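REQUEST FORM: STRUCTURE PREDICTION
Request ID: SP-0412
Submitted by: Lab K.M.
Chain count: 1
Length (residues): 89
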Amino acid sequence: MTHLNKPIRRETDAYYRQRKLVIQIEPPDIIRVKGKGRKIWYVVSVNDIYSLGAKKYAQQAKIDKQNSCLHLRTRYGKCLKCKKQIKKG
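STATUS: Completed
RESULT:
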């Protein structure tokens, strides 16, 4: 992997409010984003992006866990949670 020694600026194919986004990565851990033609840069740390990604992953894992069913069977052969008929065995 290439070590980041100097700032790198790239224009993306992503749009925000009908303008392409420009991203600049600066050492050691700063990312700047702005709309093309705009003067204001939005600055965020790589650590903040990592934390946000980890939180989003945890939230989705929690939702997936809540939506999954272990099929807890009652004596009538139906699941307690999703009410599906469960085969014996």
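NOTES: The helical segments are 46-67.
Reviewed by: T.R.
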